[in-house]
Amino acid sequence: MFKLEPRPQPSGLWTYASPILALAMTVLIGTLMFAALGKDPIKGLQMFFWLPINSGYALGELLVKATPLLIISLGLAVCFRSNVWNIGAEGQYILGAIFAAGVALLADADSSRWIVLPILLAGMLGGVLWAGLTALLRDRFNANEILVSLMLVYVAVQLLSYMVGGPWKDPMGFNFPQTKNFDAVTRIPRLFDGSRVSIGVLMALVGVGGLWIFLFRTRAGFSLQVGGLAPAAARYAGFSSRRALWSALLISGAAAGLAGALEVAGPIGQLTIYFPAGYGFAAIIVAYVGRLHPVGMVLSAILMSMFYIGGEMAQSRLGLTKSLTGVFQGLLLFSLLACDTLVNYRLKWGK
To answer: What would the pLDDT profile of 245-278 be if each residue is shown by its tens digit?
Structure first.
């Protein structure tokens, strides 16, 4: 039988081969799942892996969903590399959307086109404030940032429900919990006519390059990573763990808030109780499938957005529940965790 034998050092090959094997396992299990549900596995897999990329419009929608996932995961990568466990990016994403909507609702048809800039900055401020609460409680009271950031997600959801069902509720919205549609001047500029792809894609790509430079070419990025890998060595080198905590959480909050602002002022065009799509939680999977590397997260964000689109298509065309998206996300995550065992262990045949 096979047994696990520790490797003398982590395998560089399996570090990058593990996500590929995990994706193959996800496809295999997904095929069996479609067959068990009485659906054609080929058609089911087409919904997730072919239809999202088979036309120019489909590619545009893929980028629309990949943009917030990538931006949030870039911020989370800073936290995770610093050994700061921000699990509440969804709440920071929601607060960013609320702050951005507040600025957008103040605008009218006579406002300058530059109103888009304050909207984005307001979104980043909302995310920073919400992440700052987690940093404050961890710094002053040594509260667990995992629990604090996660619980703040539910507070953010309740705040969103109050705002769109109360002060900001659209009086002409047939009693739906939503704001009025934002004026056209507040909309995030689009890259192409007839497509919903906005300049958020360019911001995400700039963020990829900026994060790579920050992590691998600056002293500040180096100090954050040393603090995450070896706190004692970081203290000996004079790096501040407190500064690392605040920097990581505030950068992550700003990224999540920016994603929220781009979403409500971009493809949605209003603030509604239904706008949170779980991007903050899915971005955790994106970050780890991408190995916390900026380039790897680009690929994993595209893959995760394919799961979102595939879940929507499976609901409309195959009559399956939309929660199939979460099933595929979970399959990918657990497959990755299983395959990551091969990074530090090798399979060896033995009695």
So the answer is: 999 999 999 999 999 999 999 989 999 999 888 9
Residues 6+ apart with CB under 8 A from 276: 90, 93, 94, 157, 160
Distances (CA, A) of 52 to 46, 248, 301, 317, 340: 9, 34, 13, 14, 28
Residue 325 domain-assigned (yes or no): no
| Domain total in the chain | 1
Q: What is the DSSP string of 235-252?
A: HHTT--HHHHHHHHHHHH
Domain hosting 167: range is 64-292
Asked if residue 57 belongs to a domain, the reply is: no
3-state secondary structure of 347: strand
Q: Are 85 and 292 in contact (CB under 8 A)?
A: no
Supply 145's token pair.
């940032």
Report if residue 282 sits inside a domain. yes
pLDDT in tens, 99-110: 999 999 998 877
